[in-house]
Each structure stands twice: as C-alpha cells, then as structure tokens.
Design goal:
Four copies of one chain form a homotetramer. Chain A is mainly alpha-helical. The first copy, chain A, has two domains: 1-50, Arc Repressor Mutant, subunit A; 59-194, Tetracycline Repressor, domain 2. Chain A is built from ten helices and no strands. In chain A, helix 1 packs across helix 7, helix 6 runs antiparallel to helix 8 and helix 7 packs across helix 8 (118-144). Chain A is elongated, with a radius of gyration of 19 Å. Chains in contact: A-B, C-D. Chains A and B meet through helix 7, helix 8, helix 9 and helix 10 of A and helix 7, helix 8, helix 9 and helix 10 of B. Chain A binds a DNA duplex through helix 1 and helix 3.
Chain lengths: 200, 200, 200, 200
Amino acid sequence: MPRPSVEAERREQILSAACEVVSELGFKSLRIADVARRAGTSSGTVHYYFDTKTALMRAAFEWNFARSLDRRRDLLQEHADPRQRLRAFVDSYLPGDPETVRAWHVWAELWVEALHDRDLQELNEQVYGEWRRLMASIVRDGQDAGLFRDEDPVVVANALIGMIDGLALQVLLGSRSMTLERMRAVCEQVLSSLTVGSSA
Amino acid sequence: MPRPSVEAERREQILSAACEVVSELGFKSLRIADVARRAGTSSGTVHYYFDTKTALMRAAFEWNFARSLDRRRDLLQEHADPRQRLRAFVDSYLPGDPETVRAWHVWAELWVEALHDRDLQELNEQVYGEWRRLMASIVRDGQDAGLFRDEDPVVVANALIGMIDGLALQVLLGSRSMTLERMRAVCEQVLSSLTVGSSA
Amino acid sequence: MPRPSVEAERREQILSAACEVVSELGFKSLRIADVARRAGTSSGTVHYYFDTKTALMRAAFEWNFARSLDRRRDLLQEHADPRQRLRAFVDSYLPGDPETVRAWHVWAELWVEALHDRDLQELNEQVYGEWRRLMASIVRDGQDAGLFRDEDPVVVANALIGMIDGLALQVLLGSRSMTLERMRAVCEQVLSSLTVGSSA
Amino acid sequence: MPRPSVEAERREQILSAACEVVSELGFKSLRIADVARRAGTSSGTVHYYFDTKTALMRAAFEWNFARSLDRRRDLLQEHADPRQRLRAFVDSYLPGDPETVRAWHVWAELWVEALHDRDLQELNEQVYGEWRRLMASIVRDGQDAGLFRDEDPVVVANALIGMIDGLALQVLLGSRSMTLERMRAVCEQVLSSLTVGSSA
DNA sequence: GATGAATGAGAGTTCATTCAT
DNA sequence: CATGAATGAACTCTCATTCAT
C-alpha cells in the first residue's frame, strides 16, 4: 500500500535540492551525489526518480519556473493601479532575497545549458512567453487607463524583460558597478519614463 | 631556429580554437582534446601553453573580449553624429554575423562560469566597465550636442547594456518570439525614445 | 484463504519467466526486474520465492531440465523398434520448435555459467548422465536386437550426444553453414552408419 | 617519437590478459580492472586501447582465434598420411594442456555471448567455416588416397566438429563421466570407424 | 617545442537486495 | 503473501594532467 504522497514528496525534495545545488555549484559541477546528500537520501534514490542527470536537471528547471510563477500569482491581484502593479512585478524580479537569487541562478544555468539543447530552448520559449504575456498585459492595462505612453506593449515588455535579465545577471555576478540598489534605480528610472507626462 | 613569433601564433591558434569549441559545445562539454584537434595540434601542446583547463578558459575569455574591442575600435571613429555613433555601436552587438554570434556564446559561457568564480567575476567587471564607459561616453556626447534627453548617462548606458545582454541571450536561444529582427526593432525603438523631441 | 497451490503456481510462473528471459537476453543481461515483469509480479515477490539471483537461476536450470525430460518421457514408449526410437529421440533434440530452442538456450547458458560454478557442474553431471543412460540404453536395445553394430554403447552414446550438443549450438548461433536442416541431415547420416549392413 | 612497437605490444598484453581473465572468471564476471591488473597496467590504459568493454571482448575473441590457428599451422604440414594428419588435428583440440583449455574457455564464452550478438555470430561463422574447411580438406585427401570411407566430406567434418565441441565442453565442465581420456577414446573410436576396412 | 601514451581520480548509472507497509 | 520504494556497492567510462622521448 504505497502512500501516494510519498513519491510526490520525495520528488519535491530532490528537485528542491537539485535547484539549491545548481545555484551553489552550477550545473557543470553538480554531482548526483551532492543532490542526494542535500535531499537527505542516496544517489540510488535520485536515480529511482530520475533516470539520468539530464532528466533531473530538466525537471528541476521546470520546477524552478513553476515555483517562480506561484510566488508571483498573488502579486498581480494586489494592486489595482497598473503603475503599481508593474512596479511590484518588476520589483519581484530584483535578485534581493535568497529565494529569488536562487531562482535566478537556476535560470542562468538553464540559459547556457539551453544554448546547446533544443528541448531546453523550448522550455525557455514557453517560460519567456508567459513572462512577456504578463508584462505586456500590465502595460496594456496602463495604456488603457491612460497612464502609460502609447507604445507597442509587446516592444515595451520585451525591452523591460531584456533589461531585467541583463541587469540581474550583472547583479548576480557581484558587479560593484551594478549592485542590487543600482539595478533598482535603473528600473525605477525606466519605469518612470513609461509614464505619461514624465519629464524624462 | 624557432622564431619568437611561433609561440605567439600557436597561442592564438589555440585560443581561437578554444572559443570555437566553447561556442559549439559549451564550456561544460569542452575537452582539451577537442581544442587540440581544432587547433591542429595535440593535447600535450595545449598543456604546454596553458597549465590547466581553467587557465586556458580564462585566457580564451580574455582573448574573446580583446577581439570584440578590436572589432569595434574603428566603428566609433566613423560617425561624427552621436546618434549614428550610438546606433552603430548598439548595432554591432546584434548577434547577426557568425563572428558576433560566436563571441556572444563565449560571453554567455563566461557569465555562468563566473557565477561561481571570483576571478572571472573580476574579468566581467573590467569588460563590463569598459563597455559601460564607452556607451555612457557616447550618450554624454549626444547630450552635450543637445541631441539626447537629459538623463543620467550612466543609468542610460546601464539600461541599454542590460537590455542588449538580455535580448541577445534570447536571440541566441533561438527564440521564435525574439528573433534577430525583433531585437533590432526593439533596440531602434528604445534608441529613438532617447532622442530629444521624440514623441515616444 | 491462500490455497496451498498458490505458492507452487507462482513458483512455476517465475521459473518459466526466468527461462524465457534467459533465453532472450542471456544470463548476463537478466535482471530480476525483467523476470518479475514477465511473470506478472514484482521483484519483491521474486525474492520472496528465491533468496538470491543465483538461487533463482539454479532452480530455473533444474526446472528447464525437468521439463525437457517430461517432454520426452512418452516418446520412448511410442516406438518398439530401437532404430525408430533412437531416431525419434535424437530428432526431439533438434532445435526446431520454439520450446526446444528455448530449452537449448537455457542449457547453453548453464554450461558457461557452470564453467565457474561447482554446484552447476554437479547439475550438469546429473543431467548429462541421465541423457547418456537413456541414449546408451536405446543403443543396447538395438544391438541386442541385432540392428546396430557392435560397438561400446557408452562410447556411441557419448559420440552422439557430443555431436548433438555441438551441432545444436551452431544452429542456435544462426550459422548459415549449419542450419537446422543440415543438422538433421548430419544426424541422419550418422545414425544410418550405426545400423548393421549400412554401406556408409 | 613513439616507437611503433609499443602500441602493438601493449595491445597484445591486454588481449592476452583479457583471455586469461575470461578463462578464469568468465565473461560475465570480467571487470576491466581485472584485465588491467593482469596486464600490469591501469584501467585507463585498457580504455585507451579499447573504447568499450564490448570492443575489448570482441578483439579478445578474434585474438584467441588467430592464436589457435597459428598454433595449428605447422601441425598440418607434419604428417604426410591423411590418417595421421586428421588424428593429429583432432588431437590438438583435446582440452589437455593449459593453453588449449584456456582457448576453449574463451571460445565457450564467445558462443554464449554470440547467442545475443549478431556481430559475434558473424565471427563464429568465419572461424567455424575455417575450421570446417580444414577438416573437410583432410578428409578429402584421405578419401582421394583411398584411406577413408566414401562419405560426403563436409558431412563428416560437421559431425566431427560438432562432436569435438560437445565433448570438449563436457571435459571443461569437469565431468567425471567425460574426462579428457574418455574424450580421447571416443575420438579414436570415431576416427577409426572412418577408415576403410575398419570393422566398426 | 611538441607529442601522445599512460594514468587514476571521479562521476553517472545499474541492479540485487532489503524492509516497512 | 505481496509490494515497490529505497539503498549502496560496484563497475564502466571520461578526461585533465603528466612525462619520457
């Protein structure tokens, strides 16, 4: 009589551990044994749930993304004003708290892994699409309310997302010139310039 | 009678080969033997020039950056108008021709490698600083000429650079939603909005 | 209310499955999990009936032999003429029908396994002894009836059995030079030469 | 300046070691590390010469066969009388001296491995063909000289070879009923019966 | 300067076996 | 009786690194 929850729980433990290890050591240096130890289990068990290291990493990337979405789901309901909604949304991507930093690390590893892996590119495509859709939708709401300049929302979303990716990477790299605070400031500035009537 | 240039030439061959292999296979999958074969030499010789794989990669990253700068040196002299200069500069980073694509690949691998390597972070810091300085300088020239809006040039440079990094990554990932052409369009739009008197 | 036969039935299922898997994949590649799946049960259950993989294989070898004997028991009663009896007996060992082929496969795996296992050698000794006894007995019957040449029956039996083993192996190996038909022809020829008055 | 002989010598050492280990432990239990230790080298070196365990085993089987042929090459020149030539040839296959026993062991492992491997079946086909050709040729010489009965030489060769295979296997299995001496006796008897004018 | 044979530490993966349920 | 999740020992294979030539 296997309890149905046991397998799901174990899976989560392992995926969470995998993300932690990727974040700390990087994909390249990740060993199955590390993930196992972190998850409090054996390497055999990791292989019981995931056939190969590649399969484990793919699942971990997906899990990392699903968690990211979950963390932001409520956020979008909290602010009626599109300006505040956009600000909060962008803000949630600043690599400040450890959980967000970890998610960014995993995401960065995915990128580079995906450069040579068609399947992961597809995953990136889906995630990025979801992200762009959310962002563009907020921009559109703001424009409908006459709050944002009348530019193509998709172009604006792409520009913002690209910028966030690029800046976050520099923050993660510990750049002295692009700290968390600088990134926040740059984002503020750019968001302001979207607003109708802004001088900049 | 070994000419002194022999060693320098060999070094270049190896570094070039290393960048090619990184670009094609990724850092993780790169083997010294691959680099040797690509460079038309033996793994023993690669080790003769570079003590360790890490040393080789570090040198390759630096070489990749130096070449990038070289390729753009003339560019900045060609355009008297800061608007055209900025446009040409940004344009030169679009991952279009094979050489630029390869350089971006190498750069992306460096980023992720640097996430867990202090020395590479320092390299990133220098390169990124150089890039930001060039970009900010053009912006400043434009402002002095009354052509660009009066925002903090460093902030503008950071925003642009971040955006270019993020968008280029998506193009490299073969995104159907962020193709080379889309990236070009987004960049055009953003550059336009910098110009004084632009409606957007 | 488990019927006492349940265990016996399960045992048979597992042994039969083990023989099938050995025949298809070979001893080396046989996994307990394969046998379990083939028997429609779990690996845990296989271990419930057989402590170790070795024990399972030993039992499977014995089961395979017992079945072989069963299949030939009636055969020997059917022919009053020793010549026909011998012919039918030899014929029954030709690797023609799937069941016989499977039995040969299992037997071949036993041989090689037994090369490094004293216990399996003992099993081979018993089985081979039984086989030789039956064969020699038929030969003796034929000689008593004045139908076969007057050679040492044990030597004749050994020669025949050796030949059958060796030829069957080649047939099993899919030899183009030693097909089932060729083997049948060679056996016919040799059996003929045993008969008194044969020209060959 | 690599000496050309180094690689060939090393290869031989490894193949010889592989045959020894196969003979002692069997294919199933053979570990690369065992072969390496036996060859006085490291497992890495074994893999330097043979990509995979499978490749190593295939090469070992071929090497074993080539050596077997070499050992018998002179034998066939030594006896002008086909009866003595056939006797000496058959005799050379009796698993008496350690070298022949080892060769038989390797051969037996090949058989069973080949049951599930098309490539090895092809190797068996070639070797067996060579063997049958030699044997049939001697028989034909004997018939031409009026020394052997007038049976189809190929059938005779097949019968003899099958018998030798089957009997050798039993001797290798340490059968108390089929010792080396018994096998020799059976072979003598059968060879005698081929001779014209033999009473049996 | 250059080579490539040789090494051996290290990692992924397999699978018989165990045991709580 | 039966299950299958979990284990971990064992093995193949990889590859940076070394060094004799």
